[in-house]
C-alpha cells in the first residue's frame, strides 16, 4: 500500500477576527516571524518565506501551495482548528482559502481539534487555567461542528473508508471530562458522523501535550497510551518528534543537534511509543524546530503547565534551563538530514505492515516555530525536494 504523507497545517498566517480583537486589524504571525532576531552566531533568524508573506485566507495562496505540496510528495493537509468564546476561531485560511482554491482536489485534508488554551491577549503563549471548551457542552458543540462542517467535503481524508479527525490533547479531554464521559462523547461523535452519512470516524490521538506534562519522559505516559483504545481512539502519534526528544536531552546541551534527535526518533521514540498500545502508531517527522521567535522572558510557552522561567544571559557553563530557558532551539537541520529522517519513517512503516502506512509531518507552514516545509531563503525548496527524494526512493 502506498504511504500517505500528512502535513499538519497551522492557520496563523492571515488576518483574522480572533487576532484583530487582541492586536488590531491585519495582525498575523508574520509580524512575529519578521521581528525575530538571532540569539547566537549562525542562528538563522528571522526566517523568510521564499514565496513571500502570502495571505493564507486567499484561494490564490493555496492554489500555489497545493501545487507545490502535491508536486513534492504531500498527500494530506491536517488543519489545526480552534474554538474560543463559543465559536470557531482562525478558520479563515481553511474556509476562505484552501476550500475555495481551484485546485483543492490535488490534496486531501483533515481537521485537528486543537484543544489547548490560547489567550487573545497573549498570542505567543498558552494561557493558564481551563478552556471554555473543557466543559462537556463546549466539547460536544465544537467537535460536532467539525464533523458537520468538513467531513462531507469531497477531498476529506479517510482511512479504511472512515473520515479522520485528530485530537490534539487526548489527555486533557479525558482528564477534564473523566474517562467515562470522554468515551461517551467520542461514541456520540461517531453516531453523529453515521447519521450524516459517513461510515463512522477514524479518531487519531496526538500525544505531544501529554509528554510535555510528563516532563518529556516517555515512560511516564505509557499507561495513558494503553488506555486510548478504551476511550475510542483508532490510532495515535506525535506532532513533532524533535520537541520531546530535544527537551529530554541533558540540560548542558543548550542547543540540541538535529542529527542526534532524528536518530533518537527512529531508534527510541517511535519504537517505544509503538509498543504502548495495540492501536496503530503513526511516526511523525519534522524538518526542524526553533521557537525563539515565540519565546520571551516571563511568559509561559505554548504547552500548558510549563514552568515560567526567565531566559538568563548565556553563561560559560551551559544550562538549557537558564538559556534558552523555556524555549527549544534545535540546530543543524539540513535537507539531507531531513531526507534520512523521512526514509527512516517509511522503513519503520514497512516493518509494520499491519499499520496503515501514514507518516505525519510537523509542519507545513509554522515559521515562528522553525518547523515548515514551505521554501525559505535559506534552503530554497530543499526540504520539499528532500521529501520528494525520500518518497521516490532515489
Structure write-up:
This protein is α/β, with parallel strands linked by helices and 394 residues long. It has one domain (4-392): Alpha-Beta Barrel (TIM Barrel). It has 14 helices and 13 strands. The strands form two sheets. Strands 1, 2, 3, 4, 5, 6, 7, 8, 9, 10 and 11 form an eleven-stranded mixed β-sheet that branches. A two-stranded antiparallel sheet has the order 12-13. The radius of gyration is 20 Å and the shape is globular. It starts with a strand and ends with a helix.
In short:
This protein has 394 residues and is an alpha/beta fold. The protein has 14 helices and 13 strands.
Number of strands: 13
Terminal Cα span:
19 Å
Instruction: Output mean pLDDT.
Output: 90
How many helices? 14
Choose one word for the global shape: globular
In the residues, how many domains can be counted? 1
Low-confidence sequence ranges = 119-132, 297-310
State the CATH topology: TIM Barrel
Q: Give the CATH H-level superfamily.
A: Glycosidases
CATH architecture: Alpha-Beta Barrel
Look at the structure and give the CATH class. Alpha Beta
What fraction of residues sit in β-strands? 5-15%
How do the helices and strands follow one another from N- to C-terminus? EHHHEEHEHEEHHEHHHEHHEEHEEEH
Please outline the major beta sheet. Answer: 11 strands, mixed
Structural class computed from helices and strand pairing: alpha/beta
How big is the Rg?
20 Å
Amino acid at each position: 500500500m502506498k504511504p500517505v504523507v500528512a502535513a499538519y497545517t497551522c492557520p496563523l498566517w492571515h488576518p483574522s477576527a480572533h487576532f484583530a480583537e487582541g492586536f488590531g486589524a491585519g495582525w498575523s504571525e508574520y509580524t512575529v516571524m519578521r521581528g525575530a532576531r538571532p540569539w547566537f552566531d549562525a542562528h538563522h533568524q528571522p526566517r523568510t518565506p521564499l514565496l513571500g508573506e502570502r495571505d493564507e485566507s486567499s484561494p490564490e495562496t493555496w492554489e500555489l501551495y497545493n501545487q507545490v505540496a502535491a508536486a513534492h510528495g504531500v498527500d494530506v493537509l491536517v488543519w489545526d482548528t480552534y474554538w474560543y468564546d463559543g465559536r470557531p476561531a482562525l478558520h479563515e485560511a481553511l474556509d476562505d482559502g484552501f476550500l475555495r482554491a481551484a485546485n483543492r482536489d490535488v490534496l486531501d485534508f483533515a481537521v485537528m481539534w486543537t484543544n489547548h488554551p490560547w489567550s487573545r491577549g497573549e498570542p505567543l503563549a498558552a494561557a493558564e487555567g481551563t478552556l471554555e471548551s473543557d466543559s462537556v457542552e463546549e466539547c460536544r458543540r465544537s467537535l460536532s461542528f467539525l464533523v458537520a462542517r468538513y467531513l462531507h467535503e469531497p477531498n476529506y481524508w479517510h482511512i479504511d473508508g472512515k473520515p479522520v479527525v485528530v485530537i490534539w490533547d487526548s489527555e486533557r479531554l479525558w482528564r477534564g471530562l473523566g474517562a467515562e464521559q470522554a468515551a461517551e462523547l467520542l461514541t456520540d461523535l461517531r453516531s453523529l458522523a453515521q447519521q450524516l452519512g459517513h461510515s463512522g470516524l477514524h479518531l487519531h490521538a496526538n500525544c505531544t501535550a501529554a509528554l510535555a506534562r510528563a516532563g518529556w519522559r516517555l515512560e511516564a505516559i505509557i499507561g495513558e497510551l494503553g488506555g486510548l483504545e478504551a476511550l475510542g481512539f483508532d490510532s495515535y502519534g506525535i506532532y513533532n518528534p524533535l520537541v520531546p526528544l530535544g527537551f529530554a536531552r541533558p540540560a548542558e546541551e543548550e542547543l540540541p543537534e538535529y542529527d542526534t534527535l532524528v536518530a533518537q526518533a527512529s531508534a527510541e521514540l517511535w519504537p517505544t511509543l509503538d509498543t504502548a498500545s495495540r492501536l496503530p502508531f503513526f511516526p511523525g517527522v519534522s524538518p526542524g524546530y526553533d521557537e525563539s521567535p515565540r519565546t520571551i522572558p516571563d511568559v509561559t510557552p505554548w504547552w500548558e503547565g510549563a514552568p515560567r522561567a526567565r531566559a538568563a544571559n548565556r553563561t560559560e557553563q551551559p544550562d538549557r534551563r537558564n538559556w534558552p530557558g523555556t524555549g527549544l532551539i534545535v540546530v543543524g537541520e539540513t535537507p539531507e538530514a531531513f531526507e534520512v529522517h523521512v526514509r527512516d519513517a517509511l522503513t519503520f512503516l514497512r516493518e509494520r505492515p499491519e499499520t496503515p502506512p501514514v507518516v505525519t509531518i510537523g509542519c507545513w507552514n509554522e515559521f515562528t516555530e522553525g518547523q515548515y516545509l514551505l521554501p525559505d531563503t535559506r534552503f530554497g525548496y530543499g526540504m520539499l525536494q528532500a521529501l520528494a527524494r525520500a518518497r521516490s526512493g532515489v
